[in-house]
User: What shape does this take?
Amino acid sequence: MRLSRFFIDAPLSIGEHDLPEAQAHYIGRVLRMAPGDAVQLFDGSGQEYRGQLLEVGKKTVRVTLDQAVSGQADSPLQVHLGQGLSRGERMDWAIQKATELGVSQITPIVSERCEVRLKDERADKRLAHWRQVAISACEQCGRSTLPVIHPPQTLADWLANTAADLKLVLHPVAEPLASHARPATLAFLIGPEGGLNDHEVEQAKAAGFQAARLGPRVLRTETAPVVALAVAQQLWGDF
Assistant: This one.
C-alpha cells in the first residue's frame, strides 16, 4: 500500500515531531487519518522519512519518524522555465505539470501580450499560491525536491539574467528540439495566451536563445510547457 506523502516546510530527522498547523488540519480534519497510520514526510532536502502518526487532534498532529530513505533523484537535465503569465487555472496547470515533469526553476514572465498584471500584495499572494501548487504536485508525483518559483519578472530582466547551456524560445517557424545537442542545463521561454510578438522573439534571440518548434500545431500557453518538457526529458533527461 502506498504511503501518504506530505511536504513539511521545516528540517526533518529521526524522532518525534509536531507538524505545522496547516498540515495537521489537512491530515486530521480533511483526510481523517488516525494514530497508527503510516506516513512519509519530506522537507525538500532530497531525504525522506517514514513513520507513523502518534496523536491526531483538531489542530495538532504528532508523528514519530523511524526510517530515513533516499528520495527520488532529480532529472539530470536542469530546466529553467520562463512561462508567460496567464490567467488563473492556466498558470496553475502550467506550474503543476512542469513540476511533475521535473522542472528545476519556474519564472512567470510579464510580456506585452500578458492579460494579467500583478503588483505588491497580490503578487505575493499569487507566488505563495503557486508554491503550494508545486508542493501538492511534488506530494503526488513522488518528487523529493521542490522547484524554485521566482517572483514574476519582465521579459527583458529574465532574458538578461538567465544562463543555460541551451536556451530555447518556442516559435512555430524553427528547427525541432531534437536537432539540438544534449545540454546539462536548459532554459525554455514560452509566451502567454497571446503569444510573444516578433520583437520579443528577436529580443530572445539577441540574448542567446534559439528558436525551436514542437510540431505543426499551435499549442495553448498551458499545453506548450507540458509538451516541451516531456520532449526535453525524453531527449536529454530521465524519461
Notes: The chain has a mean pLDDT of 92.
